Amino acid sequence: MHEVDNRSDHDPLFITLNIAVCYLTSSQRVFTSKTAWHKASDAQLTDYRSSLSSCLHSISVPADALTCQNVSCCDVMHRVALNKFASDITSSCLRAADMCIPKTSSTGSSGVVPGWTAEVEPIRQDSIFWHNMWVGFSVDGHGMA
Predict the structure, then answer these.
(1) Which residues share a beta bridge with 103?
(2) Which three-class secondary structure string do you get for the chain?
(3) Which residue(s) pair with 35 in the sheet?
(4) 16-59 tens-digit pLDDT
(5) How many CB atoms lie within 10 A of CB 81?
(6) For 103, phi and psi rounded to 5 degrees?
(7) Residue 113: what pLDDT?
(8) Average pLDDT in the 102-126 region?
């Protein structure tokens, strides 16, 4: 949109979309507990290592696929075996962590983002100020409306 009274070097873009929407849904945010590695004590980390070692020992190693020297290997069984091997290792890591490492909880969560107040909030306020100045200036072309 090119208007003569727009003294800014910015040209606003406008778009009109004709989109049929049958319905919009929203849902409540569901808390999902995650592994809280930062909360783990030395004893819990030791338990994790032990548990992980035990889980990993139960995995069968696909020796044929791992020792295959064919750089152009197209053996489907090798691919399947390697994918299962990787999946088993990942599952072992997750299972050991689930058994030994503390989880995040929804209670006691302050909702505070570390560093927000000290680092981001002053810049946010400055940005809002200058945005309002720009919007106010562009209303009548001379200054605040």
Answers:
(1) 35
(2) CCCCCCCCCCCCCCCCCCCCCCCCCCCCCCCCCCECHHHCCHHHHHHHHHHHHHHHHCCCCCHHHHCCCCCCCCCHHHHHHHHHHHHHHHHHHHHHHHHHCCECCCCCCCCCCCCHHHHHHHHHHHHHHHHHHHHHHHHHCCCCC
(3) 103
(4) 888 887 776 777 778 888 999 999 999 999 999 999 999 999 99
(5) 19
(6) -110, 160
(7) 72
(8) 77
Q: Which two tokens stand for residue 26?
A: 């929203």
**Among residues 144, 38, 47, 24, which one has the least CA distance to residue 95?**
47
- What size, in residues, is the chain? 145
Q: Which two tokens stand for residue 59?
A: 């995995």
Report d(CA 132, CA 144) in Å as an integer: 9
Q: Residue 125: is its pLDDT beyond 50?
A: yes
Q: Is the pLDDT of residue 144 over 60?
A: no
